[in-house]
Amino acid sequence: MSSLKAYIIFAPGTNCERETRYALEQTGFVADIVPLKDAINNFKKIHDYHLFVIPGGFSFGDDIKAGKVLALYLKNFFFEELKKFYEDGKLILGICNGFQVLVRAGILPFFDGKQWASLELNSGGAFEDRWVFLKKERKTPFTEFMNDISPIPIAHAEGRFTAGRETLEKIERENLVVFKYCDEKGNIKNEYPVNPNGSLNGIAGICDKNGQVLGLMPHPERAFEEHHFPESVSIRNTGKSFFKGVFEYIKQRF
Predict the structure, then answer these.
(1) Is 182 a catalytic residue?
(2) CA distance 170 to 166
């Protein structure tokens, strides 16, 4: 049995925890879904794990803003322990709503507790549920085995990545952009539907300076099995490659 463990936090409104656990377990992790109330009572248990995951969904109904309430919990109850977890060389992943949470909690991009960016309402004003293509912009534990261009599904209403000009320039300059939306040939375009939500610079996912924390709007757990993919897509290893990178990185270090 694998000794590598993943901690999946579950909050009211989260709805992708089982798919995420399935992908992690199929990759080799022992994956536990931990309700928020249990996490609050004993979050030091996080140090028994190697990967912390905030899955997709609509935590707390996305009241106020998407991911805002869960972000307040992370900031007020979990921030210092997560920082220690991170400093031990472990990984943190936020998928879709999890990305929104990491940004609003000030964990991404700079892990300083300050919100520097945001995920806002899609520029088309509607929920987007479709397949897109991602272009890999930098090497991280999460992207080690991924193709340069990968098909992957999205499902969100507030996925438009925004930041002030100086912050955006810093994110680009420090090579914190991991994924950008592109067409099937890898061309980055800002027009819909290639960029499905109007994200600045086509940004679909970012990381911290060390590449240990990743947030992305698309869902790798929904691009895991071959039958997940539409017939029009020939490359069908997106999710398996993504999670394999996470597993192998941790396996080599722990």
Answers:
(1) no
(2) 6
Contact between residue 151 and residue 229 where contact means Cβ atoms under 8 Å apart: yes
Angstrom distance (rounded) from CA 128 to CA 201: 18
Residue ranges of domains in the chain? 5-253
Tokens 């398996």, residue located? 240
Note if 219 is an active site residue. Answer: yes
Q: How many CB atoms are closer than 10 A to CB 144?
A: 16
Of residues 96, 120, 207, 228, which has the active-site annotation?
96
Place of tokens 């806002």: 120
pLDDT in tens, the chain (254 residues): 469 999 999 999 999 999 999 999 999 999 999 999 999 999 999 999 999 999 999 999 998 899 999 999 999 999 999 999 999 999 999 999 999 999 999 999 999 999 999 999 999 999 999 999 999 999 999 999 999 999 999 999 999 999 999 999 999 999 999 999 999 999 999 999 999 999 999 999 999 999 999 999 999 999 999 999 999 898 899 999 999 999 999 999 99
Distance CA 199, CA 161 (A): 4
Cβ distance 12 to 59 under 8 Å? Answer: yes
Residue with tokens 């293509």: 133
- Selecting among 19, 128, 221, 228, the annotated active-site residue is 221
Among left, alpha and beta (phi > 0; psi -120 to 50; other), residue 204 is alpha
Class of the CATH domain delimited by 5-253: alpha beta
Q: State yes or no: is 16 an active-site residue.
A: no
Residue type, 7: Y
Query: How many CB atoms are located within 10 Å of the residue 146 CB?
Result: 24
